[in-house]
Design a protein that fits this description.
single chain; 3 domains; CoA-bd; two-stranded antiparallel ribbon; Arc Repressor Mutant, subunit A; binds nicotinamide-adenine-dinucleotide; globular; Rossmann fold
Length: 234
């Protein structure tokens, strides 16, 4: 029987994965993690698609970026597929995250217990405020941002989160890059300039809420239109 549902072996360079598929791969990974925890060894496309809340063709297309073309009836080996998605997402690497800005957001992120199981270890939390420096957040102690370069070196951080006010974000972003960090997630509401070799992602909840509001408004408008059509019998 064909095993073409199995993804490409480890070490294979994956094709460029479109952002929407990339986002869904993280959902499959979480679903596979739950199946693994339940002792499930194999899963069909349909079952995995249902667990991840997508349709099977979309799942098969997404997994095809890993070299899997989905032959019906064979099923995926849960732990193997989980490893392959982790490898494609770069999660087999040990990500060590430094959080710059230990305010509301920084502390909440540093205290979140769910990162470890997803391959991210928060190794440092930094701030400029003397009242905040030295505070304990979980097992971390807030370090002074003036020592950022040394902290990055000592903790071997290779990823950073910026949870600082907008007006200091660029300067801190530059210092992180000079310290050797090339993957940065920024919450600061400002456009940051980074060189080509640096991966910068921005989280903007206000934009997400605006998009949500737009969809809610459209859904409401089409519901009103449908009711009006029903009333008129058209
Ligand atoms: N993207 C989003 O969805 C989203 C949501 C909430 C907040 N934010 C943004 O995230 C950032 C943090 O929000 P917050 O609510 O935690 O704010 P906060 O004021 O509670 O925390 C900011 C922290 O940054 C520290 N700080 C200031 N200057 C610094 C510097 N030069 N070096 C190091 N630390 C410095 C402050 O001392 C403070 O502890 C803000 O820019 C905010 O606008 C974004």
């Amino acid at each position: 029987m064909s095993t073409s549902e199995e993804p490409a072996p480890a070490g294979v360079v994956h094709r460029h994965i479109p952002p929407a598929s990339l986002a869904r791969l993280t959902i499959y990974l979480r679903a596979l993690g739950a199946l693994l925890a339940d002792g499930v060894e194999r899963v069909s496309s349909d079952e995995l698609a249902e667990a991840a809340g997508v349709n099977s063709p979309k799942l098969r297309k997404d997994l095809s970026y890993l070299g899997s073309y989905g032959t019906r009836g064979v099923g995926y080996e849960v732990s193997y597929l989980s490893d392959q998605i982790s490898a494609a997402l770069g999660l087999t690497r040990n990500w060590r995250v430094a959080i710059v800005g230990a305010g509301h957001l920084g502390k909440a992120l540093a205290g979140y217990p769910g990162f470890g199981s997803r391959g991210f270890e928060v190794v440092a939390l930094l701030d400029a405020d003397q009242m905040v420096i030295g505070q304990e957040v979980g097992w971390l102690r807030v370090s002074p941002v003036k020592d950022l370069e040394g902290v990055v070196q000592r903790t071997r951080a290779n990823m950073a989160v910026l949870s600082v006010p907008a007006d200091v974000a660029q300067e801190l972003c530059d210092r992180l890059i000079e310290s050797g960090i090339t993957s940065i997630l920024s919450f600061a509401p400002v456009v940051l300039q980074v060189p080509d070799h640096v991966q910068l992602r921005k989280v903007d909840m206000a934009t997400e809420l605006q998009i949500l509001a737009y969809h809610a408004q459209r859904a409401q408008a089409s519901e009103i239109a449908a009711k009006a059509r029903a009333r008129l019998g058209t």
